[in-house]
Specification:
The protein is mainly α. It has a single domain, classed as Rhopdopsin 7-helix transmembrane proteins (Up-down Bundle). 74% of the residues lie in helices and 0% in strands. The chain has helices spanning 7-27, 35-59, 66-94, 106-128, 130-133, 142-171, 177-195, 197-206, 211-230, 246-266, 276-281. α1 (7-27) runs antiparallel to α2 (35-59) and α8 (197-206) packs antiparallel against α9 (211-230). It is globular.
Length: 282
Amino acid sequence: MNPRLNERTAAAIGACLVLLHAGAVLFSLQSPAQLPLIHQLAGLAASLLSTAGTVMAARAFSPGDYLRRVWTMFAVSAVLLFVASSLRVGWMLAVPEVPFELSALAPVRTLAVVVVNILNPSALVLLALTYRRSGLQPPRSWKTNGLWALCAVVALAIVLPHLSHNVKLLMDGGASVAQTLASVVSALGDIVTILLVAPILRVAYMMRGGKLAWAWWAMAASGAMWIVYDAQQWDRIQGPLALLAVARTAAISLKGLAGVLQRVVLEPEPAKPETAASLRAA
C-alpha cells in the first residue's frame, strides 16, 4: 500500500490539529472575541480529515457490502459537518458584526446538523452490530453490564439538562420550533453516541492485538471525546476552560483516523521480493 494518506500521516495530522487548536485558544485568552472563530476553523480542518478517512474506508469495500454502507454514512455525515462549519466560518469572516444565528444561512446549517445527528448515530449502531453479523457473541459479564450502566448514566446526565433548557426556551418564546427540534435530534444523537461507547470498546478489547482493533479503538476514543465535549458547551466559555473545546476537534479527527485504519486492514500485503538465494535455487 502506498496511499497519500496512511495511518501514521492521519494520526500526525489529527494530533497537529488538536495542538494547533489548543495553542490558538491559549494565545487568544486575552482576546476572547476570537475564540468562536478559532473553534470553528479547527472543526472545519478536522472535518476534512474525517471526510478523507471515512471516504477511504467506504471505497475499500465492494458495492453492496454491509460495511460499505456503514462507512458511506459516516462519510456523508463528515461532508455535511464540513458544509455546516464552512457556512458558519464564511459568515463569521465576511460579516463579523452580524451574529450567524440572524443570517439566512442559519436554517441551512441547522438542517445539515440535524442530518449529521441522524446519520452518525445510525452508522454507529450499524457498526456496533458488525460483530453479531460476523458470528461473534462475547459473553456478558458484570463488567460489561457496568460499562453499559455507566454510559447510560453519563448520557442522561449530560443530555437531559441541555434538553430541558432548550424546551424551556421554547415554552418561554426564546427559541423557535425548528431550533428546539434540532436540539431534540442532537440530544438523541448524543445519547446514542455515548451509549455505543460501551459495545465499541467491548469489540475493540475482544480484537486486541489485531490490526482491526486499532480502528475500533479510534472510534471508541472519538466517542469518549464527544462525551467530554457534550458535558458543557466549552466553545461558548471564556478563560482556560475553553481549552476543553479541543475535544470536538479530537473527536472529529479520530473518526477520520478510524476510517484510515479500516482501509489499511483491507489492503493486501505487499509481495515479498525473491531473494538471490531463492532465484539460484530455482
